[in-house]
């Protein structure tokens, strides 16, 4: 009689910030010191796929990441699970007609299995895809309906700040919010992906090694020690958020590229301004920056934008498909693939570019 199991599977893409989130004002609730803006990536290339299951036969919550069991006792998982359980509503099991009520949900244990189709913790926002996917799949499993728009993004935020932005596609803003409880620290969509179809995203995986300084501890150190971070969060980012929203709305690539590169460079400057300094970029990252900067200067106006998260891998935005093809050629010339590597090192937002 108790031998039933219900499960759901969902997929959520990663996102890459063009105005970075760096620094928390509340560590527990994961409330940021500045708003941020990101582009959600194509799930074909960079996403998490998560299956969640519930059964009275499960004795405790359990979690498998990329096939390996890991602890689910961390505060971040616990917070997401608690908030989702609190919002569970009736679910009818089709085969038996049995109803899982809110009360039953509060007693059920959950098994979670999640897989990434890209390197974990290499600065490609794997936690963003993972927690967005966890919250979304639990919402499907437990029939959770948002009471206000963005409620689920606030729960994903409890898992990983950047995860709140992965619940929407296209161009997304995470409002830092003002409330102490974080209710208004939510993500909203600025524009659908189809709004700016010319834009091509190219990711150069320079290294799939795990980063040495996690974003969590890196941020803590920066908040404690970097005077530049305070200036960035209070003076620079508020200005840039407005400019970036405008650039996205009007598809102004020159402006989009200018702000994206400047913000990435300033974020890495705050890392360098942290004591002891944090280095996320490596020699290849810096060579890539040089290549794009020289190209843009010679062209007279920006053709390509680059941005780097907490790792050496580059995410680049090409103005259009023709530029993307040019960019790939230049990358392959400057960084010849090694014998064991191949073109798949370059993950594309648009497969047709690779074919041409
Ligand atoms: O959400 P976290 O803790 O993985 O932090 C992400 C921080 C950056 O990726 C560097 C910037 C961002 O806005 O995504």
Report on the structure:
Keywords: ATP-binding, Lipid biosynthesis, Lipid metabolism, Lyase, Nucleotide-binding, Steroid biosynthesis, Steroid metabolism, Sterol biosynthesis, Sterol metabolism. GO terms for molecular function: ATP binding; diphosphomevalonate decarboxylase activity. Performs the first committed step in the biosynthesis of isoprene-containing compounds such as sterols and terpenoids. Its EC number is 4.1.1.33. One of its GO terms (biological process) is sterol biosynthetic process. The protein has about 350 residues and is of the alpha+beta class. The chain has 2 domains: about 5-195, Ribosomal Protein S5, domain 2; about 195-355, Alpha-Beta Plaits, CATH 3.30.70.890. The chain contains 10 helices and 17 strands. The protein has helices spanning about 75-85, 100-105, 125-140, 150-160, 215-225, 225-250, 255-270, 285-300, 320-335, 350-355; strands at about 5-15, 15-20, 25, 30, 35-40, 45-55, 60-65, 70, 90, 100, 110-115, 170-175, 185-190, 200-205, 305-310, 315-320, 345-350. The strands form 5 sheets. The protein has a 5-stranded mixed beta sheet with strand order 1-6-11-7-8. Strands 2-5-12-13 form a 4-stranded antiparallel beta sheet. A 4-stranded antiparallel beta sheet has the order 15-16-14-17. Strand 3 and strand 4 (about 30) form a beta hairpin. Helix 1 (about 75-85) runs parallel beside helix 3 (about 125-140), helix 1 (about 75-85) packs antiparallel against helix 4 and helix 6 (about 225-250) runs antiparallel to helix 7. The longest helix is centred in the C-terminal third of the chain and has 23 residues, at about 225-250. The model is unreliable at about 340-350 (pLDDT under 50). The structure holds (3R)-3-hydroxy-3-methyl-5-(phosphonooxy)pentanoic acid.
